Amino acid sequence: MFQSVIDQIFQSKQKPNFIITACVLLFVFTNVVLDYSFTLFQNSAFYISESLLFSSYWVLFLPLLIVVLKWIRKTENLTVRILVISAAILLHLFSYPILVWIISKAFYDHTFSYWQTFNFGLSAYFIKTVIIYGFSLMVFILWNRKSESLQLIEKIDEQRKGQNFIRSILISDPHNKKLLLEAAEILYFEANSPYINIYHSSKKYLHTQTLRALETQLDEKQFVRIHKSHIVNISKISSIQSRQNGDYDVTLCEDTILRVSRNYAKNFKSKFSEHNQLTLK
Fold first, then answer.
1. Residues 205-214: contacts with CB within 8 Å, 24+ apart?
2. Over the stretch 153-176, which tens digit does the pLDDT of each residue have?
3. Distance between CA atoms of residues 69 and 21, nearest Å
4. Would you say the pTM of this structure is higher than 0.90?
5. Residue ranges of the HTH LytTR-type domain (predicted)?
6. d(CA 265, CA 248)
7. Fold exhibited by the domain 168-276
8. 3-state DSSP assignment of residue 170
9. Where, residue-wise, is CATH 2.40.50.1020 in the chain?
């Protein structure tokens, strides 16, 4: 669940900024509510203007976190990333009283002194600040590892797709003689657990492999799964007939008729149409 949240946060370049902004607004709102609740408990006066002023501490996370994320993206060195986070924490702590001083100087009757606000921020927000920046770094590292893993998997898949498919299959005849069958000459494969039957243009052979394993080795542009028990050579199909229930019958060049299951019909029609450059309804 935690990993899925990380993926959602970093799914695009715009989402992190949106999430940070939403969190900042939530923190400001929560801070004001807590201030109000505290005054009710203490039976004292509540001034929303002052509450908003001191809640500006959370607003500083908006620019600083965005900048921090950009910086830690530029390096893979953990020490440098920790230094960046540490610098952000210090900058946050020292910038907060400046922000309060400027705002109170411009809009309030009373100007809050720098060191008074600094001591307040240090006592009230220091631990929270370390946790938030540290958590942000941890989230980024976990997401970055997941992203690198996905890229590696995609690269491996692309390399596998770029590999040559088997062009021939080595089998043994009843006399234990080794034969090399050209894949292009094979009509279809049939499951015969724990083996498979290979229907060649000349005769039928038994092969010690599963249909599922063989399917990953065949050229998907030439061979297509039409049923849980059959893989057919598209180039050997001479005609197709709909059964009007989602299934189809395909007739091969030597008059063998095989059923296309509705579960495989969509993929079959797509591959057949692509192979023959026509539209199959």
1. 205/171, 205/173, 205/179, 205/181, 206/171, 207/169, 207/171, 214/189
2. 676 566 555 556 888 888 877 777
3. 14
4. no
5. 180-274
6. 7
7. OB fold (Dihydrolipoamide Acetyltransferase, E2P) (2.40.50)
8. strand
9. 168-276
